[in-house]
Write a structure and sequence with these properties.
The protein is an alpha+beta fold. The protein has three helices and five strands; from the N terminus they run αββαβαββ.
């Protein structure tokens, strides 16, 4: 196995291991995972598979996922209202929630929230 093919597997294992330790360590707070989007879209550009699979492990252990969608100033030009950014943030959160549910997570174990300001991301938080 070449070094380039081992990196994704090693990264996935490291993230999964971090999830297990973060979820088990109450003093550190809840585990969080960030998924990045292209500005102005719901197209994921980073952290799709590894983070969703790692978050799934937490759900299998009986935890709930909170998915927060955010928008940023780069999402819209000066003519776009804050309502546009809030709607886009909601679409991002719902896209991630839908993807999580495709992995088999019950809809009762994942809910979404949207915020108009922040980064062009969705954040998954593992809750007890």
């Amino acid at each position: 196995m070449s070094c380039s093919t081992r990196k994704p597997a090693i990264l996935a294992f490291a993230v999964a291991l971090w999830v297990v330790s973060a979820v088990g360590a109450q003093a550190r707070g809840p585990a969080k995972f960030m998924i990045k989007f292209e500005p102005g879209t719901v197209n994921i550009i980073q952290n799709e598979d590894v983070i969703l699979k790692a978050a799934m492990y937490a759900v299998e252990k009986g935890y709930t996922l909170q998915i927060e969608g955010f928008s940023c100033l780069a999402d819209a030009d000066s003519n776009d209202a804050p309502e546009f950014r809030l709607t886009l943030a909601g679409k991002r959160a719902e896209k991630v929630r839908g993807m999580i549910m495709k992995y088999g997570v019950p809809s009762d174990n994942a809910y979404s929230i949207s915020y108009e300001k922040g980064q062009c991301v969705a954040v998954i938080t593992v809750l007890k």
